[in-house]
Amino acid sequence: MHHFSFHDSELYCESVPLARIAEREGTPLYVYSRATLERHFTVFDNAFAAVRHLTCYSVKANSNLAILRLFGRLGSGVDVVSGGEILRALAAGIAPEKIVYSGVGKTRPEIELALARGILMFNVESAQELELINRVASEKGARARIALRVNPDVDPRTHPYISTGLKKNKFGVSIDEALDVYARAAAMDWIEVAGIDCHIGSQITTVSPFVDALGRIKDFVKRLRGRGIALRFVDLGGGLGITYDREEPPEPDQYAAAVISELADLDCTLILEPGRCLVGNAGCLVARVLYTKQTALKEFVIVDAAMNDLIRPSLYEAHHALVPVRQHDGPVIRADIVGPICETGDFLARDREITRPAQGDLLAAMSAGAYGFSMSSNYNSRLRAAEVLVDGSHWHVIRRRETFEDLVRCETIPACLG
Ligand code: LLP
Q1: Structure pTM?
Q2: Is there an atom of ligand 1 within 6 Å of 367 CB?
Q3: Which CATH number does the domain 4-32+280-408 belong to among 2.40.10.10, 2.40.37.10, 3.30.70.890, 3.40.640.10?
Q4: Is 79's C-beta closer than 6 angstroms to any atom of ligand 1?
């Protein structure tokens, strides 16, 4: 469900035609729907209403300050993975006690920052990280609350680049090792053992991997209790998938029901870290057709959005529906929809059936609200796209288009080069 729909052959976001926004703000352009974002958060969070829980939106999916503020106002906490994300969350008004911090490579300055701001907990991913957190906490005289990220060795059956809970992945500590690490943590003066965490992957479209992971966590939590280590939080990470093409992921309430019944007798506060399912289909990337060309083998539609704007098709061969912003008649062709970047891997879609567009037409890459802008770059010295938030019949620019000055802001030509 989302608020992008056609009226009289025109694609609208809420009550505004996308073409009108693109005329004013230019392309490529990310457009998000406030009503969709709010609806998704509310549906997700309400699905867990029966249990003590904290929904911590995963900032990496879309880290725009306005989006963070929007979720924060609805009561969301956040899952962060860097000092930059901590500062973003705080700048957007998220309370520190609603911040959980994951990541395999937390640096000393990042740990210092998180401690100084008093975040809810560190999701610790190795024994060495635990030792560093304990050291920094003792220097600062502030106890650090931690959960250990365990790796339940569950196959999420998703793209290998976004599977994280298998033995061969770099994340977390295996369940076998975890008992020992917990025992060490419990003996540390500046560590408060608060919870357990896992995140098995992303774009997961069935509930069974979550249930399997939670089952293993539950057994482990009971073993820990047997050793006198009691936990207050179980963090199940994120990972619930969305429909890009023909996937049929579980609805949040199906996911929640499965999780809640598996969790039943643990008496812990549940933390969830949804990213994609809150923002994915609340956004699209609008691009303009620059040229079309026919080669001996293929037809190409060259648009002004590229892999620097939306890298998912190039990186994961991900599917994004490409929709003409104004529906029109014409022959259906099979074409590669490509960007201007000097790489063969720069495409939004390959061999895609599409009504032949004309120069100047607008196309929308749908479901681009998650891992779209947040993974964008300046490759080929392209200025990053603007982002707008539609709210009913209005829209707000929530990130202006970059300028040449933005592009070179951090660079200097040393005097010795004249
Ligand atoms: N928590 C942790 C610790 C994570 O690593 C992630 C995502 C999430 C939560 C949120 O997962 P979600 O609910 O969004 O699936 N760039 C890839 C996705 C990478 C996901 C990384 N971790 C993509 O575009 O598909």
Answers
A1: 0.96
A2: no
A3: 2.40.37.10
A4: yes
